[in-house]
Specification:
Elements lengths: L4 E7 L5 H10 L2 H4 E4 L6 E9 L2 H13 L5 E11 L7 E6 L3 H14 L13 E8 L10 E8 L1 E7 L7 E8 L7
Antiparallel strand pairs: 1-3, 1-8, 2-6, 4-5, 4-7, 5-6, 8-9
């Protein structure tokens, strides 16, 4: 096994990076969090897998390339957070509920769970803005965060710990209509 961890996600299109960076700056997240998401790392995680051997990585890529799911629209709605206590562990923009997104996540789960993906809590689609708090003062982040885009692919990412940007896209998989024979 390598030390690298992997996940499957939907990257935020580059034309929306400035929007999300503006949100991070307006909320002054760098003051409250040790890790503010780099523009090119913005994504909606579909399945966190963890470590993979090179053989497992090759097998996973093959299975992901065979997955069929239709393109869809994704919309963020508001700023929210994960975690109890005085300050949320993670600040994110919520992703609006979407049947096509849910179906894609379920199909991916059926594949990635065979490679060690583990769900510790129910799936909550979101785009992380910041994590790893540095402050203990009581603060909540709220507000609108409305942006939409067409999702035409999902990607496999490698986590490069200690680097910025941290996530390296190693493969992309186009969404396409299922073909019935």
């Amino acid at each position: 096994m390598s030390n690298a961890h992997y996940f499957v996600g939907i990257p935020v299109p580059s034309k929306y990076h400035a929007y999300f960076i503006n949100l991070q700056q307006t909320l002054e997240l760098e003051h409250y969090y040790r890790r503010v998401t780099h523009a090119t790392d913005l994504h909606c995680t579909l399945s966190f897998i963890g470590e993979l051997s090179s053989d497992q990585l090759q097998q996973l890529q093959q299975l992901l390339s065979e997955l069929k799911s239709k393109p869809f629209s994704m919309s963020t709605t508001e700023i929210a957070g994960f975690g109890e206590g005085k300050i949320p562990r993670v600040v994110y923009t919520a992703v609006e509920g979407n049947q096509a997104l849910d179906e894609l996540e379920q199909k991916l789960w059926a594949v990635t769970s065979r490679f060690g993906a583990d769900r510790k809590s129910p799936y909550v689609p979101h785009v992380t803005l910041a994590k790893r708090t540095r402050q203990i003062e009581d603060i909540r982040f709220t507000g609108q965060a409305q942006v939409s885009w067409e999702v035409a692919e999902f990607c496999l990412f490698r986590v490069n710990k200690g680097m910025r940007p941290s996530y390296e896209q190693i493969a992309s998989f186009p969404l396409q209509l299922e073909l019935f024979q």
